[in-house]
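Example S7 (structure tokens).
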């Protein structure tokens, strides 16, 4: 599968089954940066809780398509630990970011949030 095909499939699934979220970056002595985005959100199953995952952690799948500039660099991997993701009326903190690549091209980000 080509990177473009993988991204197109992910974008279609997020449009159909994802939910609206807000990406937030705290700014010292300033107003936090907040940008709306769409993502696929799911909880972890009990059998997945290993390697630093804990009950209550959530996976947020992000596409590189349209990622706000404040949360992307040339490789779209600038979302970082301690950024926030708001969904379902709760603010969660980024714990891990796992970039997924095909043939060296970023096709998705699996983000683990806590809180």
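Recovered sequence:
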């Amino acid at each position: 599968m080509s990177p473009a095909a993988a991204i197109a499939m992910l974008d279609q699934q997020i449009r159909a089954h994802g939910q609206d979220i807000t990406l937030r970056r705290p700014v010292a002595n300033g107003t936090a940066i907040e940008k709306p985005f769409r993502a696929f959100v799911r909880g972890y199953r009990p059998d997945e809780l290993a390697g630093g995952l804990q009950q209550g952690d959530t996976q947020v799948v992000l596409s590189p398509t349209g990622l706000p500039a404040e949360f992307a660099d040339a490789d779209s991997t600038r979302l970082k630990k301690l950024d926030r993701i708001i969904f379902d009326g709760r603010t969660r903190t980024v714990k891990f970011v796992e970039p997924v690549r095909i043939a060296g091209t970023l096709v998705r980000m699996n983000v683990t949030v806590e809180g």
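Notes on this example. Helices lie at 3-17.
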